[in-house]
Amino acid sequence: MNTLSHGLSWIDLQFHGRGQVIAAVLVQGHGGAAVIDPGPTSCLETLELGLQASGIRWADVRHILLTHVHLDHAGATGTIVRAHPHVRVLVHERGARHMADPSRLMESATRIYGDQMNHFWGEFAPVPIDNLVGLTGGERVDAGGRTFDVAYTPGHASHHVSFFDSSSGVAFVGDTAGVCIDEGYALPPTPPPDIDLELWAASVERILSWSPSTLMLTHFGPVMRVGPHLSALMENLQTTAGMARTLLNEPGTDEERGARFAERFRRERRQHMTEAQVATYIVAAAYEHQFSGLARYWRKKAG
Ligand SMILES: [Zn+2]
């Protein structure tokens, strides 16, 4: 258990036994408790141990706040709600329909993960419509005894929202502020199908307008150097997007280009970090999928 502020903590979900890949946030206060991005079902046991360690029972948890519906953030939600039907799930309205009926989401994830799907993520159960609260951004929501500002922050996913707790200064930004392990490289995760560079830059501005003292990243943990981190992230997004654009003009299939992209990126990263760190970044954001998300963006832009 790691404390962000009074009543705000995060736990390392130890994704497949590996630390520093996925974090979930626990909120507790007079109004009960809440979880922000509970993670995948394959990590549910670790989440429950974390709740126990914080003295939280599921009966206390009234809300789950989702930054977006990707499996690594939202996967366990339906399984939790099935066992604890009093829990309300707050999610962007565009993501809400995928939570109610995950079949299309599962289809697109299966294209990426194939027969590894269940092993990696476990079950993705639907959430009954009556448990879902649709967000659009701009509202304020009460959960876990505090009030969060909600902002619509697309770029990584078209249904991404971020939450800000002004009392602690912590912004819960999901993947909008990228992946960053041990204050290292700020990696923009760019899986298909929603990547949009312009929207992403606007979302980063939106987050900065809160003047947060801390960014809480799902991958991985709190970042205190908010300004420098976000500028590095935007710079790295431009660089990797440029790399993908160059590759699109090279011969070969997308699969070959994706492999080349991953290889170049890996080589580049090895100059700046240890092999173990490179491996953790690969788990948090598989490099091959990074290419397909960017390729899709450039092709859409070209019309
Ligand atoms: Zn993620």
Description:
This protein has 303 residues and is of the alpha/beta class. Helices cover 41% and strands 21% of the residues. The protein has eleven helices and 13 strands. The strands form two sheets. A seven-stranded mixed β-sheet has the order 1-2-3-4-5-6-7. It has a six-stranded mixed β-sheet with strand order 8-9-10-11-12-13. A hairpin with a 2-residue loop joins strand 1 and strand 2. Bound molecules: zinc ion.
Shape: globular
- Catalogue the ligands: zinc ion
Portion in helices: 40-55%
Instruction: Work out the radius of gyration.
Output: 18 Å
Q: Sketch the major β-sheet.
A: 7 strands, mixed
Please trace the helix and strand order, writing H or E for each element. EEEEHEHHEHHHEEEEEHEEHHHH
Q: Which features characterize this protein?
A:
binds zinc ion, 41% helix, 303 residues
Describe this structure in a few short sentences:
The protein has 303 residues and is of the alpha/beta class. The protein is built from eleven helices and 13 strands.
Question: Secondary-structure map with pairings?
Answer:
Layout: E1 2-5, E2 8-12, E3 23-29, E4 32-36, H1 44-53, E5 61-65, H2 71-74, H3 77-83, E6 88-92, H4 93-100, H5 103-113, H6 117-121, E7 132-135, E8 140-143, E9 146-152, E10 161-165, E11 170-174, H7 197-208, E12 214-217, E13 221-223, H8 226-248, H9 254-270, H10 275-284, H11 287-302
Parallel strand pairs: 4-5, 5-6, 6-7, 11-12
Antiparallel strand pairs: 1-2, 2-3, 3-4, 8-9, 9-10, 10-11, 12-13
Residues 70, 72-73, 175, 218-219 line the site of zinc ion (ZN).
